[in-house]
From TrEMBL:
One GO cellular component, as annotated: cytosol
Class of this enzyme: isomerase
Annotated residues for binding of ATP: A31, G32, P33, G34, T35, G36, K37, T38
Residue stretches making up the UvrD-like helicase C-terminal domain: 292-577
Reaction(s) catalysed by this chain's protein: Couples ATP hydrolysis with the unwinding of duplex DNA by translocating in the 3'-5' direction; ATP + H2O = ADP + phosphate + H(+)
Residue ranges occupied by any UvrD-like helicase ATP-binding domain in the UniProt entry: 10-291
Protein's GO biological process: recombinational repair
EC number: 5.6.2.4
Stated name of the protein: DNA 3'-5' helicase
UniProt GO MF annotations: 3'-5' DNA helicase activity; ATP binding; ATP hydrolysis activity; DNA binding
Family: Belongs to the helicase family. UvrD subfamily.
Residues of the full protein shown: 460 to 1135 of 1135
Species this protein is from: Desulfonema ishimotonii
Keywords from the UniProt entry: ATP-binding, DNA-binding, Helicase, Hydrolase, Isomerase, Nucleotide-binding
């Protein structure tokens, strides 16, 4: 190994080195959490370039989040930086969605289409449902449920003409109608949704061999992280690019497979060695992340359900705190307060106004931590509300890793709509956002007229700008006409003012000239969202299209900033692949873990267990499991039982923390321990 250039193999153990330097051909790396899978993949890229002289542009690495992709690029760059002096091309490292958008853009004749983000997708689904209802078709399912199924259909590579029974059961006919209308609406605006990105590329590859071969030839080495979470579309994409015999390295942990509800299927992971019979399988056994008690507890949760042949026991040898801390509180508010108090203790806090922690007896805690050392993980986004509320009151800085909290914030949402419209890239929904924000007094009825006119005339937003104000809109009052033409001329003026500016300058210009600056200044959260957006814009210089593409593709973990001196609040799903010195899992209750299914979405208890396992294994040094005895769910207060998964952890590994609730605690008697 000493022969390898410039320390690419430094900081790897022998098993990891073997994985990094394993010869070409299909390679499967199966290993538990924190064993350095992602690190190994990064080093393998650098090794291919530095040692095997593979041109970087011939390497494709697919990761789970844009953030992971960026970190991987930076790591590879740093490792490669030691190898060469001159500038080099970089390997393609990105998510499946980003990769497919690039391919679609490159392969489309004009300048391709735009991507509807999550919020817009919901609006288009709602419009499709409205149109289907207008045709007299009864829809018992809610638009969100129908949207989920359209998404699922696409992940199963089913188009509207296919038999949709596998994803919709007896609602198949209804789904066909909504799905078809939905696709028409998207096509009218040359827009793709997330799932279209992958579906379209797979369709293209499978119907056009020349295109497929072009990309298969270009990406000679393909590496995929988190392979256990592939769905059919992603699997077929990888297959199309990697016919048998090609170097393909996939990495994963079947015990961390948590996306079944999005069509992921462990089958693809399992059949890797059948798909590629010459595949070499390697394992990594040493964990570098978590203290032993955390690993032991995690193992007790997964062991009888593990998909790993050896039950998945991994060791780190890291000595740490002897036990996990378990806290049971009367209500969700007192749970949030208890978490806040524990954090305050550990940062050595004194000056927080509303929490008095002198009586807490969270013993033996390190008291010099930074806020960024902590993550509070939960099953359901709804749980973040009360936690955020309590933290805000207590002055604990926090960030919520949720796409909507940045891109969906009032003010920011409209800012992006303006940027798109003025850049000729907007969708009808962007136009509607601007109309709503400007308080044109356009009621729902007028708005419906407007959208009907838009859809019936198959207009693009650009055409709207050209037509409105010049031609009267049928059925629209004079006042409304005037409002609209005012708006349109305002947009034209903005458009002129923006030309030649960088993305950052454009955003600044829009803020000042649309009244949005005032809207955003009204709330600290809006300001925080804007700050993050502007910071992201900085990286794009004058590339507005690139910026908008980034904005559309961001998902929950992408809006999370490692460097911020803040406590992280995120869902268990978003935390996959990440690690924190101190982790709280909030809501360790039956109903959250496992999550209570709905008639539309039955629970997969094993998957829920794996999700809990993912959460436990995010912790490096300390782990807190908290729960509330009573909680408001969908507006109704209910008693909550402890999560059955927690019961699988031996009591000797847990300390039951005596804790008193804040405010609520005064009304309720003090509770002792999770099992009391
Ligand atoms: P997950 O299953 O959660 O995605 P993973 O297997 O991808 O985990 P990594 O995130 O790559 O694991 O690594 C976990 C931690 O261990 C990281 O902080 C990483 O830097 C560290 N690590 C991995 N290998 C080594 C090593 N050989 N020496 C020191 N630290 C290591
Ligand atoms: Mg990883």
């Amino acid at each position: 190994t000493g022969a390898c250039p410039a320390g690419i193999l430094d900081g790897l153990n022998p098993e990891q080195r073997q994985a990094v330097t394993c010869a070409d051909g299909p390679l499967l790396i199966v290993a538990g959490p924190g064993t350095g899978k992602t690190r190994t993949l990064t080093h393998r890229i650098a090794w291919l370039i530095g040692e095997r002289q593979v041109a970087p542009e011939h390497i494709l690495a697919v990761t789970f989040t844009n953030k992971a992709a960026r970190e991987m690029r930076e790591r590879v760059e740093a490792l490669m930086g030691r190898l060469t002096d001159g500038p080099r091309k970089m390997p393609v490292v990105g998510t499946f969605h980003a990769l497919c958008l690039d391919i679609l853009t490159a392969e489309s004749d004009g300048d391709g289409g735009s991507v509807v983000d999550e919020e817009e997708r919901r609006e288009v689904v709602a419009e499709a449902v409205r149109q289907v209802r207008a045709q007299g078709i009864a829809t018992a399912l809610r638009p969100d449920a129908l949207g989920d199924r359209i998404s699922l259909a696409k992940q199963h590579l089913l188009d509207p003409d296919a038999d949709l029974t596998p994803v919709a059961g007896e609602d198949a006919a209804l789904l066909t109608a909504v799905y078809r209308t939905y696709q028409t609406l998207l096509a009218r605006e040359s827009a793709w949704d997330y799932d279209d990105l992958i579906f379209s590329v797979v369709r293209r590859f499978e119907s056009d061999d020349a295109v497929r071969e072009k990309y298969a030839a270009r990406f000679r080495h393909i590496l995929v992280d988190e392979y256990q979470d592939l769905n059919l579309g992603q699997y077929r994409l990888v297959r199309a690019l990697s016919p048998p015999g090609k170097p393909l390295c996939v990495i994963g942990d079947p015990d961390q497979s948590v996306y079944g509800f999005r069509g992921s299927d462990l089958r693809y992971f399992r059949q890797f060695t059948t798909d590629y019979p010459e595949a070499v399988t390697l394992r990594l056994r040493r964990n570098y992340r978590s203290a032993e008690p955390i690993l032991e507890a995690s193992h007790q949760v997964i062991r009888d359900h593990s998909i790993q042949p050896d039950g998945g026991r991994i060791c780190s040898g890291i000595r740490g705190f002897d036990t996990l801390t378990v806290m049971a509180l009367p209500t969700e508010r007192s749970e949030a307060v208890a978490i806040g108090k524990a954090i305050e203790r550990m940062v050595g806090g004194t000056g927080f106004h509303s929490i008095d922690f002198e009586k807490t007896d969270v013993t033996g805690l390190k008291t010099d931590r930074a806020f960024s050392d902590f993550a509070v993980l939960y099953r359901s986004n709804a749980q973040s509300r009360v936690i955020a509320d309590v933290f805000e009151n207590a002055g604990i800085p926090f960030q919520i890793a949720r796409r909507e909290d940045v891109f969906g914030r009032k003010g920011v949402r409209e800012l992006l709509a303006y940027l798109k419209i003025a850049g000729g890239r907007g969708l009808f929904s962007d136009f509607r956002k601007i109309i709503r924000m400007n308080g044109t007094g356009m009621g729902r009825k007028t708005e419906a007229l407007f959208s009907q006119w838009f859809y019936e005339n198959r207009l693009s937003p650009d055409r709207v700008l050209a037509v409105v104000g010049r031609e009267p809109l049928p059925g629209l009052s004079d006042v409304m006409q005037r409002h609209l033409s005012c708006l349109v001329s305002q947009i034209s003026i903005l458009k002129t003012g923006m030309s030649g500016k960088s993305v950052r300058e454009k955003l600044g210009f829009l803020l000042e000239n649309t009244g949005l600056a005032t809207v955003i200044r009204e709330s600290a959260r809006r300001e925080a969202a804007l700050t993050l957006l502007l910071r992201k814009a900085d990286a794009f210089g004058g590339d507005t299209d690139g910026f908008l593409k980034m904005a559309a593709l961001q998902n929950d973990p992408d809006v999370w900033e490692l460097s911020a001196q803040k406590v992280t609040l995120m869902t268990l799903h978003a935390a996959k692949g990440l690690e924190f010195p101190v982790v709280f899992i909030a809501g360790c209750e039956n109903g959250f873990l496992p999550f209570r299914g709905s008639p539309n979405r039955p629970v997969d208890t094993d998957e829920e267990r794996r999700l809990f396992y993912v959460g436990l294994t995010r912790a490096r040094e300390r782990l807190f499991l908290t729960r509330a005895g009573r909680r408001t769910i969908y507006g109704k207060s209910e008693d909550r039982e402890i999560s059955p998964f927690v019961r699988d952890i031996e009591e000797r590994l847990m300390t039951f923390e005596k804790n008193r609730g804040h405010r609520a605690g005064k009304k309720h008697p003090v509770q002792l321990g999770l099992f009391n």
